[in-house]
Amino acid sequence: MSHSASQTERAAITYFNADDLARNQAEIAAGKLWRFPGGIHPPQRKDLANQTPIARMPIPKRLWIPLKQHIGQPGQLIVQVGDSVLKGQALTAPGPNAGLAVHAPTSGRVSAIVEHPSAHPSALPVTTLILDTDGEDTWGQRHPIADYTQLDSAELIAHIAQCGIAGLGGAAFPTAQKLANSQPLDYLIINGVECEPYIVSDDRLMREHPAGIMRGIKILQHISGIEQVLVAIEDNKPEAIKAMRDACEGDASIQVRAVPTVYPSGGERQLIQVLTGRQVPANGLPKDIGVLMQNTGTAYAIYRAVMFGEPLHERVVTLTGEALERPGTVWAPLGCSVEDLLTFAGYRAYPKAKVIMGGPMMGFTLPRLDVPIVKGSNCILAPAKKELPTAGAEMACIRCGACADVCPASLLPQQLYWLARDHDYDGLRQYNLADCIECGACAFVCPSEIPLVHYYRQAKADMREQYIEKHKADIAKERFEARKARLEREKQERLEKHQRAAEARQKAVAEREAAAAAAADTVPDTANTNAGESKQDKIQAAIARAKAKKAGQAAPAAEASKQDKIQAAIARAKAKKAAQAAPNSEPAEAPQTSPAEAPAAELSKQDRVQAAIARAKAKKAAQAAALAASENQEAQPSNKPEASEDATLTPPSGEKTERGHD
Length: 662
Known about the structure:
Helix content is 42%, strand content 11%. By secondary structure, it is of the alpha/beta class. It folds into three domains: 33-381, Rossmann fold (3-Layer(aba) Sandwich), CATH 3.40.50.11540; 392-522, Fumarate Reductase Iron-sulfur Protein, Chain B, domain 2 (Orthogonal Bundle), CATH 1.10.1060; 533-584 and 599-634. A six-stranded mixed β-sheet has the order 1-13-12-16-14-15, with helices on both faces. A four-stranded antiparallel β-sheet has the order 2-7-6-4, with no helix packed on it. A four-stranded parallel β-sheet has the order 10-9-8-11, with helices on both faces. Strand 9 (228-234), helix 7 and strand 10 form a beta-alpha-beta unit. Helix 12 (413-421) packs across helix 15, helix 17 packs antiparallel against helix 18 (562-581) and helix 17 packs parallel to helix 20 (605-634). It starts with a helix and ends with a helix. It is a peripheral membrane protein. One of its GO terms (biological process) is electron transport chain.
């Protein structure tokens, strides 16, 4: 690919100026190799497993398939217990944050979904699907792409993601996410170095399937738009170097480079420096200096996914170690247990034997053998009793500095060791613990036999947990503040709503009062005297009714005072007068009615009701007062006649007063 102006400008800003960039590209084209700092030369021991072709083991009766086999979140299960599945069928839907789907390695029936020990030093249980195989290995529906050149990058990246492709070099980083890069890049590096002792998976794959790897490289070129490809192979693999050079013969865009055998030359940052002379910045990524790297096994998996529609359901695993009768390499279905693989290779167990997943430098001892193979599992090492002697007791650091001399990342392992022991996470960040690739070179040369990588891994796990907890706390704080703001907002909205409702009610009352007042002021006297009453007469009638009502309520049932009876009589008189005064104010145009009907017709309905109630109450109060007075007179002894003051009033007809009796 010819370098565009933006590409040249980017590279000049991030790493080189224009002249240095041109010189660097010329040196790379000429085949120059650089060196990285540090490195060691441990015994290779690769001849144990690289002498025989890749074998294919019988399908196990049971597979243990973890739902998370890559960096990122696990997918969501889309099958249930009892379901029958076919080979290549998706078992999970991709989860968020770079999630990948997991597919069935063969046909069978889902028998259980349990928590099962994982491929981890702690054997931490993870959600695992148990697949009882049927032995038929029946493929499900596949979606091959006949001509990938007719598809754009986004479509191919989506297809790769659906096939669950992850980096097979050991990190298991989602390949689709790695390919989803918008900035222009200079070089695509295919990593076939495989520098760790004992491991020969990539070596055998390059020997036996170079054409498939080359097809995968061409697909990667089409997706990334990178024209210049560097295939790196350690010089202790001459057969693989020859096979790959023969496969790419005639393609000037692909160059095979034999790199010196130095551990850990297969590390991403170290290999980039060896091939290009460029250094990935601390806390940076290869794309920051114009480089994309993929493993040879990943390239072959992309070829199978695109050309045949096969999802990632198996991988090449190295079975090695002197405790095996038949060491070699094997196509292992994902989910196959380590125990089944060891049985296939003729494992000779012995008391206190240890089995390592990975190589002797970066691998870890398995606490149990029923853990499954996952996408990042490239080797099972079963050493004999004396093959890998058990490390001695940890001794005090003598500050020799040998660890710093061999560190390929130019770190200070001794200082990191002290900080890790003190749980000084800020200090670990300051000394760039994140740049440690955990290659184990420092522990390999330590005379005190301090397991330095163990301390670094534990510190990284603690820092990761601390980050997760801090992230959760930040999210919880944001949610709390958002909830608090929402409640405050809702409270304010309610107050405003109530205030608006109160204002509306006050406005309505004011409008009604204003309307009533306006009606009272504007209606003609003839209308105001609809019942024959003038405004003053209405006021007098209302006062009379109120007084009559008050007098009727205040009078005792058994004893009515003279003043109360007088007030009641006055109230009745006023009410009667108000009712009688109504005809005198009759308008001229009022209809002619009889004398008996005139008051009723001229009074409004409400006034008539009020006047009737007032008269009734006044009459009832008078009757009650008279009855009480009568009963009081009858209760007096005959020898003590006392005339009530009420006797001066006209008694009811038919009754004799005490004075008349005398």
